[in-house]
Amino acid sequence: MDTTFPQLVSRRDWLLGMAGCAAFSLNSFGDPPLARADVTLYNTPYIDLAKVAGALGMKYQISKDLKDAILSSRWTKVRFKQDSRLLLLNNYKIFLGYAVALHKGRLFLSTHDFDKAIKPLLTPQVFTDIPDLKTIVIDPGHGGKNPGCINKSLGMVEKDMTLDLARRLQRLLELRNYRVFLTRTSDRTVPNGNRPLFASKMKADLFVCLHFNSVESRSVKGIETYTFTPKNQPSTARSRLVEEDRKAFPANRDDPWSTLSAFYVQRQLIKSMRGIDRGLKKARFSMMIDIQCPGFLVEGGFFSNFEEAKKIKTASHRTRLAEAVMQGVTTYHKTLTRISNPAL
Domain limits at 53? Predict the structure, then answer.
């Protein structure tokens, strides 16, 4: 069951849990991980999952074989698995930066992931600088000389589909009194570096990138949503750090809010479209590096999967995609309103 209250841990659970959070301070741009590590494993700081549960006021269960752990409250269940970067939050997939580790008979979570994934989703109240949400910039992927994915058999070009989807989403959001701008309104080439500049010029409060997917395997299908990778974490496509991962980019200023908005959108897309959940992931996409507000990128399905591509080609399916993104955005807005006005 989903609640209308912003966090996924109930308000009572959160208030009780915060009594145990004195060891944890707020996140800020460019800072190292802020949860206190219990141990360093593989050159990465980790915290005991049992301690995380206590800090959040949640119950903690670990399987007899020590391979699985569950944190639970009245409405929320978070499942972790040893040696896996995938967690399930009420059965929705979220990819961590680092795998959960077994150490001396206990399971440990990276402090990076506690700060950058768990707290934004379960206790967003602990973060300062709560953003407004009045102006939204939608970024239809590709355009002009850059067609994006192509499905020749169905006569589909990604740049056309993303622009159509963006227009549908724009109309829906404007009906809800948001100021909405598109990085392109026609089939023209827009350099990736110009897209966040346009968002800054429009003083965007949220940056929404719209894309579709394609891979060699024709059996792969589903929907996934990306946030910009936090500092000191590898992107989802890699398991090891590279030098770039140690840098903080402008997009990292809003890591918590990007994670929260992206989760709501991905969750709603899976609910509404009833498709395969490919999860909430992380990547350092070039069009997101310099954004000055929360943002995420939606991959709305696979051109390379004939069944899914046929659906994407229909106007009704693209309308449903737009409606799902809109609903996720409005849920995120409700969250911001509630945590800005806790008396409501």
Answer: 11-126
Task: Report pTM.
Answer: 0.91
At 199-218, the pLDDT tens digits run: 999 999 999 999 999 999 99
Residue 226 C-alpha from the chain's centroid? 5
Kindly state whether residues 229 and 114 are assigned to the same domain: no
Does residue 115 contact residue 35 with C-beta atoms inside 8 Å?
yes
Instruction: Determine the pLDDT at residue 34.
Output: 54
Determine which helix (DSSP H) or strand (DSSP E) holds 212, and give its type and residue range.
strand 206-213
DSSP 3-state of 202: coil
What's the 3-state SS for 236-277? CCCCCCCHHHHCCCHHHHHHHHHHHHHHHHHHHHHHHHCCCE
Question: Is the domain of 86 the same as that of 26?
Answer: yes
Distance CA 75, CA 248 (A): 34
Helices and strands in the chain, H and E counts: 9, 17
* Residues 115 and 139 both lie in one domain: no
- What angle (nearest 5°) sits at the alpha carbon of residue 287, between those of residues 285 and 288? 70
